[in-house]
Amino acid sequence: MRYLPHTEEDVSSMLRAVGAEDMDDLFSMIPGSCKMDGSLNLPEALTEWELNTLMNNISKKMAVSPAYKIFMGAGSYNHYIPESVSYLLGRSEFSTAYTPYQPEISQGTLQAIYEYQTLVTRLLGMEVANASMYDGASALAEALLMATRVTKRKKVALSGLIHPYYRDVVRTYLEPGNYEIVELPRLENGKTDISGVAGMDDLAAVAIQSPNFFGCIEDLRTTGELAHELGALFVLSFTEPLAYGLFKNPGCQGADIVCGEGQSLGIPQSFGGPGLGMFACRMKHVRNMPGRLVGKTTDMDGRPGFVLTLATREQHIRREKAKSNICTNNSLCALASAMYMASVGGTGIRELASLNYDKTEYLKRGLREAGFVITFDSPTFNEFVVKFGEDFKDTYKKLIEQRIVAGVSLATWYPELSGHYLLCVTETMGRTDMDALIKEVRS
Amino acid sequence: MKEIEELFLPDNVRYAETHEWARADGDNMTIGINDYAQDQLGDIVFVELPEIGATFEKGEEFGTLESVKAVSEIYMPVSGEITAINEDLEEAPELVNGEPYNAGWIIEVKPNDPDEINTLMSSSEYLEMLKGGE
Amino acid sequence: MKELQGASGLIFNEPLLWEKGKKGRRGFSMPRRDVVPSPLDEGLAGDGPDFPDLSEVDIVRHYTRLSQWNFGVDAGMYPLGSCTMKYNPKINEREASLPGFAGAHPLLPQELSQGTLELMYRLEQYLAEITGMDAVTLQPAAGAHGELTGMLLIHAYHKSRDSHRSKIIVPDTAHGTNPASASLCGFNSVPVQSNEKGIISTEAVAAIMDEDTAGIMITNPNTLGLFEENIREIAEIVHSKGGLVYGDGANMNAVMGIVQMGKIGFDVMHLNLHKTFSTPHGGGGPGSGPVCVKAILEPFLPVPRIIKKGGEYLLSGDFPESIGKLQAFYGNFGVMIKACSYIMSMGSEGLKRASQLAVLNANYIKENLKDSLYLPYDKRCMHECVFSDRLQEAEKITTLDMAKRLMDYGFHPPTIYFPLVVHGAMMIEPTETESKEDIDRFIEALKAIVAEAGKDPVLLRRAPTRPKVRRLDETAAARKPRLAG
Questions:
Q1: Which of A58, C3, C60, C370 is the 20 to 30 A CA-CA neighbour of C134?
Q2: In the predicted structure, residue B134 carries a pLDDT above the cut 80
């Protein structure tokens, strides 16, 4: 096997050195009753070339852009990734290193993560961001747990317009701890109805998503004010961070914790993972924050350098009293997003976000003109809900034959919105693609 | 780390087994950690303090001290109510290392029983305890 | 000693991203604007983030220079104990970046996503076979996430039987993630001490296992690199009181094809695809932490699950007793492809050989260094061995000093100060992909360092001198945190 460098001669001389007669003898400390009978029943080992053929064949069964025009978002977005990002990310000095426990020989990872933390704080308008977490959904669950630690309260209010899967993950995380979850209903305009929390003086957090699951921009400032009146933290979740290239950031509108999915920023969709859990908060709450943090310092000679810091919050020191059980971050994904944010740049991200916005508005207009109702009239980013009607299922299937995937049906999560579809448009979608969709659904 | 002989253990405070010290100041008592404890912990980077007005029993945890790679709990040497906390430690936790008995004090309490301080060890008794543990 | 591996070459100083660039530069090919601008409510528009503007060349130089300050497995031996820093095969990267995989939307209709589902189904089958367990979920994002999943499964199991148990037994040699994961599920960790042989005794578990204890979390082989020989008896005690056994599979690399985990009493265990199955650690993730269970826990596994029905693969959420979801979608699929590729490249014989060589390499290091460094448990080890700095105490040289000096010699240091039961621990895991020559060089380097400790201890206390920076002031970093620029 090409990954195993030992020759037979190496093996016998090493066995001699350790005083073992043979490989079986080497494992003599394992009781016979624990040993495997026979050998593993796995397919015969493949050569590199056979593996390529097999993987080519399996991967070709997938429908992907650009062969398919996929008007689908709902937490996973198709954006262009510069080749330079993919190329740099492949540098094995980054990919084959581990958590930077030894800072002297990990300055590359450490400076890159420090830069990532900084770019995230600037994007979200927050004071401090961690080195990243698993994904947007688990980051939201961690944010709510953090809010319960900060406020010493056990009840959280969750918008029903947070991604349904995110709410599922929150329920999983909060189930064993006797927490209470209140779900907030929606208004006719596609935003969250937060009025119900008034008077709840035992809330740890009010959490909403913006842009929300329907693509609508929520009223952040109002939500934050209400949360603060109640002594609760305002937690803001997101699935599409590119929106903050154009819209006001959550930090300047009163958010205490901002967390979400960073996949949009230079990370392939990869069937939903790995993603990037972005997580930021106010500096005063940093000691209750989960996850790794990189800080700036100096070395013995006074030169600047970076280290992992505030580690006493974490499991390897505080064990059962840790702020979270998370061990590492999604470092390489964080690196990808930092490379992406730097490549697009301050001027570029605004232009790119505007282009996404304008393209979505183009499709909205086209569908309206074709006689369809856009379900919610609130401003949106990248995604919106359209009523195609109950009998659209057959058309949806026919469109697939023409290699168009016309969004996601909302019936599964919102039965009252049966016949309504969530569509997504990004910069990767050309005008002709959108015209084709409009033409097909019209007919 | 210091050898036992190098420790500074003044006579004007009383010592708890868990390495805190207490000193009667009028009706109240000032509490900190001693030279041995600060030396064992190393550079202290953060002190988590209780709220003023909180009450604790003797032996109960009232705060934590953090070094770069360790967290250790601080326990009440006597029962009582917190009347003051050393707010300087927020900006300068290193005071606990540098001046553990003076500027590095941690809390002030109003003891439930002013005589409880006598249940704590004298400097020589404490030193004996440390030596016994060697 | 031959010439040192560690040398100094030309590396570059490089400022922070925002200290470079000029307004108006761009490192991104802006897509064509083929639609007209649409008005946006002014009350909603923000100023946009204060990112620097950089050209593509700026970006490439920046990250190339940063990368040169890093040490990775591709550069040299990385014997970080319990982290299994084995070689990461390059072909796996190619498979993961195939457009059909990398570009797949997670909510595609099932008929359009047969490829990804087939691959995940295959991987589940392989992992069940390798562990000897009955069912697998690939959803957890990392080892600690797998532990959390395992604890949630145990919690759900007891709840389904109307039993509310508050405690969980955790050995003193466990990773910190074990008690932290248990706490998230509301369990209080009850520590159990390892005995003089470095393993858990049956009696120690019998003394604390009771009907308020949900189970035990046990790492096997443990973090001292020793096989928990009493595991079957321990499992029997735990089972007899109605508890379950959680196996932390962080050290699975020692026993593939050798120990059948399903047979030694584990009810649930996690694997680390980024350790045992060769996927790159990425500077700290993404990993992947699949959880394998016995049939009694299968009803509680996270949803959705992958089902094969008449040659078609489906995602099903129809498991009413499920603990729910752990991630938005199905786990770190991009990592799964690499692990699956590895298993298919290695086959049954290759995996077993990998474990054999991993154990051989560790024992070879142990035998060759035990006269130079203190070996607290002098017995045959598994895939890693644990030394300490006890013999260097006279010179006041610590494990940290020796670890830092190893960098000058061109090696990544081992895991240090863990496990906590060994004072000044140095935990060495060479993995199977290091050749005898490289291991010999590593042994020589550590012997040379031990000799230096006696002759010239200052050399060690001032180490390292060759990397880009020297020892960093972690105290200042923690006292006055500077976390963003």
A1: A58
A2: no
Q: Is the CB of C106 inside 8 Å of chain A's CB atoms?
A: yes
Domain ranges of chain A: 69-81+345-442, 83-340
User: Which residue, among C268, C62, C241, C259, has the nearest Cα to C150 in the 3D structure?
Assistant: C268
> What does the pLDDT read at residue A68?
97
A283 Cβ under 8 Å from any chain B Cβ? no
Average pLDDT value for residue range C17-40: 95
pLDDT score, position B133? 67
Q: In what order do the strands lie in the sheet with B20-25?
A: B14-15, B20-25, B28-33, B107-111, B80-85, B55-56
Q: Domain A83-340 class? A: alpha beta
Write out residues 413-432 of C within 8 Å (CB-CB) of B.
417
CA neighbours closer than 13 Å in the CB half-sphere of residue C469: 28
B72 to chain A, minimum CA–CA distance in Å?
A: 9
Cα dihedral B13/B17/B18/B24 (nearest 10): -20
| Residue A443 pLDDT | 78
pLDDT at residue number A312:
87
Q: Above 60 in pLDDT, residue C263?
A: yes
pLDDT-derived band at A109, boundaries 50, 70, 90: very high
Burial category of A35 from C-beta neighbours within 10 Å (exposed 0-12, middle 13-18, buried 19 and up): middle
Partner-chain residue, chosen from A287, A311, A321, that has the shortest CB–CB distance to B69: A311
CA-nearest residue to A26 within chain C is C360
Task: Indicate the fold that domain A69-81+345-442 takes in CATH.
Answer: Aspartate Aminotransferase, domain 1 (3.90.1150)
CATH ID of C347-469, from 3.90.1150.10, 3.40.50.720, 3.40.50.1980, 3.40.50.300: 3.90.1150.10
**Alpha carbon of C484: minimum distance to chain B alpha carbons (Å):** 19
Whether residues A287 and B46 touch (CB distance < 8 A) is answered with yes
pLDDT value at residue C321? 97
Which residues of chain A lie closer than 8 angstroms to B45, CB-CB?
Answer: 312
Asked if the C-beta of A333 comes within 8 angstroms of chain C's C-beta atoms, the answer is: yes
- The percentage of residues in chain B with a pLDDT greater than 90, rounded to a whole number, is 85
The complex scores an ipTM of 0.97
Domain C92-344 falls under CATH 3.40.47.10: no
Which DSSP letter does residue C286 get? -
* Tens-place pLDDT, residues C409-464: 999 999 999 998 999 999 999 999 999 999 999 999 999 999 999 999 999 999 99
CB C324 within 8 A of CB A169: yes
Q: Which residues of A touch B70 (CB under 8 A)?
A: 312, 317
**Whether the predicted pLDDT of B40 surpasses 60:** yes
Report chain C's mean pLDDT, rounded to a whole number.
Answer: 96
pLDDT at res. A274 = 98
The verdict on a CB contact (< 8 Å) between B46 and C478 is yes
Taking contacts as CB-CB distances below 8 angstroms, the residues of chain A near C41 are: 379
Q: Would you say A387 and A420 are in contact if contact means Cβ atoms under 8 Å apart? A: yes
Residue in the block written with tokens 């195993």: A4
In this prediction, residue A314 has a pLDDT band, given cuts at 50, 70 and 90, of confident
Residues near A322 by beta carbon (within 8 Å), at least 6 away in sequence: A313, A314, A315, C176, C180, C183
Domains of chain B: 11-111 (2.40.50.100)
Q: Are A347 and C53 in contact (CB under 8 A)?
A: yes
Residue of C nearest to B89 (CA): C479
CB contact under 8 A, C177 and A315: yes
- For the segment C65-87, the average pLDDT, to the nearest whole number, is 97
Whether B61 contacts chain C with CB within 8 A: no
> Domain residues of chain C, as ranges?
92-344, 347-469
Which of B66, B68, B69, B72 is the best mutation test for C, with the most CBs of C within 10 A?
A: B68
Interface contact C49-A349, CB threshold 8 A? yes
Three-class SS of residue C8? Answer: coil
Token couple for C374? 């203190």
Give yes or no for C30 touching A (CB within 8 A): yes
The per-residue pLDDT for C2 is 60
